[in-house]
Amino acid sequence: MAVTAGSDLLWKPLNHEVLMLTRSDKIRPKILGLRIIKYFLENLKEEYLVLLAETIPFLGELLEDVELPIKSLAQDILQEMESLSGESLRQYL
Prior knowledge:
Layout: H1 8-21, H2 27-44, H3 52-62, H4 68-85
Helix pairs in contact: 1-2, 2-4, 3-4
GO molecular function: snoRNA binding
């Protein structure tokens, strides 16, 4: 079986590693992780939807972060995911 650019076999491990950055105690890795997730979302578009189930719990945690830049970026990503999926994802947070 060949791994294509859209295959979750390729993106799932990478997405998980990036999401783990957002669990750092420091603000910089969290913001970096969020920026990468936003980049994935903007460039993969519908192909990223298969990774929503794994990503949403991390976003839920980040929406409760004490740092405003992290909350704001997480909110932007959530809105973009909702726009792309066509449904509200807040019930899953």
